[in-house]
Amino acid sequence: MQQFFVREPLATDSIISFPEETEHQLLRVLRVRGGETVRLVDPNGIPFLATLEVTKKHVTAHCDEALEEKRELPHPLLLALARIKREKWEWALQKATELGVNAILPMETERVNEAAPTGNRRVRWERILQEAAEQCERHRIPTLEASLSLAEILAIPDVEKIVLAERSEEKAPTLERVLENVAPKGSILLLVGPEGGFSPQEFVAMEAAGVHFANLGPRILRAETAAMLAVGITAQWMEA
After folding, report:
1. How far apart are CA 208 and CA 32, in angstroms?
2. pLDDT tens readout for residues 130-145
């Protein structure tokens, strides 16, 4: 069943019009004829079943009933990911959305080699997030923050910060063990470095800021793999 996010609050028996882009998708790509049932999610994160009504040029939806569902994580989960190669970054955006991340923070570190995104690139990324949220029937689209330096991310208040990295001087505990010892089921911010890893100076700064260090096992993982494994483990811990 197709899902669409709409820009206005929904109520039973309300009639909703779609923006031009969505109408084009419904009429030209999905080729709806009227009578199809779709899912609509309003800005408050409330999902509805709705029935499509089609005229020659326009599509509207009649809201039938609100749905009682639990799709979002019980606590905020944020992912600070250093920018990596474009195709891997976009894959990570999609999969992080499917796994329940609330916000993605592009992180500037010393070893980031990717150029800062243009306005068009950001529009594309936001579209990826929306389409992924619709596909997996989430009630919220993750927020894509502006690029932040590592120092700015370390200064974010009221969130437990966990960096996924090995330290040469001391083997970090597993992520599962770290999660057992953080604030009970509070907000979590995961930090994953670039393909070249964090620099020694960045490790010093993170340690001084009091972040938790965690590892994901004995194998060396690519940045996007580490990010998704960490997100998946943390999401399951939150929902347990």
Report:
1. 57
2. 999 999 999 999 999 9
